[in-house]
Each structure stands twice: as C-alpha cells, then as structure tokens.
Write a structure and sequence with these properties.
The chain is mainly alpha-helical. 69% of the residues lie in helices and 0% in strands. It is built from eleven helices and no strands.
Length: 227
Amino acid sequence: MAKARRGSERRDEALSRQRIVDAAIELLDDEGEDGLTFRALAARLSTGPGAIYWHIANKDELLVAASDLVVTRALADVSAHATPKKTIHSIAMRVFETIDAHPWVGAQLARSPSTTAMLQIFERVGRQVQALRAPAGAQFTAATVLVSYIISESRQNAANGRLYDPPPDRADVLEAIAAQWNALDADEFPFTRTVANQLREHDDRAEFLAGIDLILAGIAAGSRTSR
C-alpha cells in the first residue's frame, strides 16, 4: 500500500544537517531514490536548495548520510550480551527488517561497501565471528560471506515484496509457484519438483535465518578442524 505523503516541515525550525537527513529519509521512503532531489527536499523543508547545499554537498553524500543514520538506529538495540549465534541472528534480522522497510538502503549498502553503515554491520558481525573462535586466517572470509548473504537476501526479500501493487495474498503466490514447479519435466527438474511442496509452507524469515545457520555451521566445522 502506498505511503501517505508527509507534509512540509515548518520554516521557523532551525535548518540543520540532522533535519535534512531525516527529511531525506522520509522522502526516500515515500518516493524512492529517483524522487530524492534537492528541489523536492527543499519543498519538504520549506526552504531553498541553497540552504541545503550549505550542509550537504550533493545527492551521493545525502544518500550515504541517510543510510548511515537508518542502519545506526537499527543496530542500536542489538544486544551485546547474547550468544554469538543469537547476536548474529539479531543483527541479521534488524538489517532484514530495515531493508524491507527502506529498500533504498539495500541498494546503497551494495553500492558503497566502505560507508559507515556497511562497516558497522561488518564490525558487528566480525566480532561475533571472533567470539565463535573461527580460525584467524578464516575470519575475514567468514565475516564477508555472512554480511554478503545478509545484504543480498534482505535486498531480494524487499524486491519480492514490491513486485505487485497492490500485493497479492502470499499463500496464493506460493501455491501458484509450487504448482508450476510440480508441473515441470521430471527428468529435467527432478530436484525442483521434489522441493515444490516445501515452497508452499516456507517462511521467509525462517529460511533467511536457516541460511545463516548453514554458514555458521561451516565456521564451526572449520574451527574444529583447525585445532
């Protein structure tokens, strides 16, 4: 369902970088990345584009600042006292839900791997990889694979949720796809036909976390063999 357009900000509030970034987040959520222009942002803030340029040099800088802020807020409540596995699950689900709510964040993270937002995710995941006692020589690879999986799967989930407007009933979509898989040629697609019924009942979030657990199982196996 399309989101309601937010009203313009009051002119008498002091313009700041924080207010600009918050307004940009709202605009990105409403209109998408193509809708983020300094003219549209100025209208929302009831100011002129020149006042925004005083704080933000260009659209790229604004996108980075907006994604950094969204991710920082998302990760703020991730517990540091849970087990490494639970903490990675928590980080992953916060990123998953954040990209679902703000699809433009996923595109920005994939485009700019050296931004503060991406580094925050990598750092948080990497600490837990260390806590799992992964071999020192494998920690970079393990953290990279986990973060890549988290970002790519979260982006795909967000994209899938926006294929239709209005969105159809999820059960109906899965049933239709499962029926297509069951009707495939048995000699050419034996595996796909075998798992077609599992598709009908799968839960996106549960499957997402199950993929993470497969990666963690590999890390654990590597830790055992290195001893």
